[in-house]
Design brief:
Low-confidence stretches: 335-345, 364-408
Number of helices: 18
Strand order of the largest sheet: 1-2
Helix content: 55-70%
Shape: elongated
Distance between the termini: 101 Å
Structural class: mainly alpha
Number of strands: 4
Mean pLDDT: 76
Strand content: under 5%
């Protein structure tokens, strides 16, 4: 670690100068040799660095979201060119270029912060070794060596020997208790930051290997920090714990105010926005108008959370406009109520007795209906005069009713009139 830190010695002087300036400020309040003066100087250094890295953090968020949106296309390219790795790489680079996505952008804040981290490590190691570094002269060096945070010197480590810790006017037990607590807090904050990102700010409709990789890193990173933390001085642990807490708070703000589309955080944000807009009847914030404007511009490509938001506005009698504002609309109310009220009518369910009766007499209902319909139809046959006797009556055999009283059977279509020729025995039926 000392070798790596020496590689960033070019930034050691600026880092030590910033610490000294903050120490002179806090030393006037808490005392020059106080652990609070030196500890708050390190915390202030972290805050200053993270404020400068905010533009990179915003770029990291955009890059991460673009990577999430590109996962289905990347998976399709991998499956299509799985036998040709060179073509696969070319198509990936083409996709990144077309969408303006840089996979390394998600690592920019960590990469940009690493020189300051190793420079601070080099400064604290020099203090522990009683060596002047940067703008820290011998008087400041003695003051830093006397500074303790909850009984642990800034330059002490968890793995230091009792003799080395004793040389810093501290006990090994105090050092290990303080460093162990700080390591646990550092790892827990790292885990919670990654966990809230995976559970709240991830599009749940996208299931790709990238998501599984992020889930695995959620458990690996805290373990890595815990193993590395036992070799960090107390001052470096203060630095790393502060930057983790800052990242956690920054991530919570982003999830709350600018969530990923399709995530649980977006659903919560749009529900809060819907409640505010329906209560006031207008959109006052420019940022909120931009959110509504983007939802309107999507049209039919809206996700479930955005469709729910538009429906909620319609039920409240409001319609989202293209410029991000809302306007009263009776049509939106009617469409919302009509769409919710028009439901498909289901046929009435028959009773058990009717179902059993229908199964026992499957043709009964139809036969009754046919009989009723036949009774209503007018008779097509001519009525014979009373007492009349014609040629048909004479030719009628005895014991059979007359043709007028009997119902005539309709002739089948295609049947020949007159006597039928008998079928040949060899003909098919």
């Amino acid at each position: 670690m000392d070798t790596i830190a020496s590689l960033f010695s070019f930034i050691t002087t600026p880092v030590s100068w910033v610490i000294v300036q903050f120490h002179s400020l806090y030393g006037a309040v808490f005392g020059a040799n106080s652990g609070w003066a030196w500890g708050l100087s390190i915390v202030s250094l972290v805050v200053l660095i993270r404020i400068c890295l905010i533009p990179l953090f915003v770029k990291q968020i955009k890059s991460t979201r673009n990577m999430q949106a590109l996962q289905p296309k990347m998976k399709a390219i991998q499956e299509r060119y799985k036998s040709d790795k060179q073509r696969q790489s070319e198509e990936m680079m083409k996709l990144y270029k077309e969408t303006g996505t840089n996979p390394l952008s998600s690592c920019l804040p960590i990469l940009a912060q690493s020189p300051f981290f190793f420079a601070l490590y080099h400064v604290l190691s020099s203090i522990a070794s009683n060596k002047e570094v940067g703008v820290i002269d011998q008087s400041l060096l003695n003051s830093a060596r006397e500074a303790h945070i909850f009984g642990a010197p800034l330059a002490a480590k968890f793995m230091d020997s009792a003799e080395k810790v004793g040389g810093l006017d501290a006990s090994l037990t105090d050092v290990r208790i303080v460093t162990a607590i700080m390591i646990i807090m550092m790892s827990a904050s790292q885990f919670y930051t990654q966990r809230q990102l995976m559970q709240k700010n991830v599009d749940l409709t996208v299931k790709t290997p990238y998501m599984q990789q992020q889930k695995m890193l959620m458990y690996i990173f805290p373990v890595i920090f815990a193993v590395m933390g036992i070799n960090f001085p107390v001052g470096v642990l203060v630095y790393w714990l502060t930057t983790n807490v800052w990242t956690m708070g920054q991530q919570m703000y982003v999830i709350s105010q600018n969530p990923t589309p399709g995530s649980k955080a977006q659903d919560s944000y749009l529900q809060r926005l819907l409640k505010t807009v329906t209560a006031r009847g207008e959109v006052r914030s420019r940022r909120k108008r931009a959110v509504i404007q983007s939802i309107v511009a999507k049209g039919t490509d809206r996700n479930d959370n955005e469709r729910k938001f538009i429906t909620g506005l319609a039920k409240a009698g409001l319609a989202a406009q293209e410029d991000g504002t809302v306007a009263k609309s009776d049509t939106a109310v009617a469409e919302a109520e009509g769409g919710a009220g028009q439901k498909r009518q289901q046929p009435r369910r028959q009773t058990k007795a009717k179902r059993q009766s229908a199964s026992a007499h499957p043709g009964g209902t139809k036969s009754h209906e046919a009989t009723d319909s036949e009774a209503k139809k007018p008779s097509l046959s001519k009525e014979e005069p009373a007492g009349g006797s014609g040629a048909d009556d004479k030719s009628q055999p005895a014991g059979k009713p007359a043709s007028g009283s009997a119902r005539q059977q309709p002739k089948k279509s295609g049947q020949r009139k007159g006597p039928q020729r008998p079928k040949h025995p060899s003909s098919k039926k």
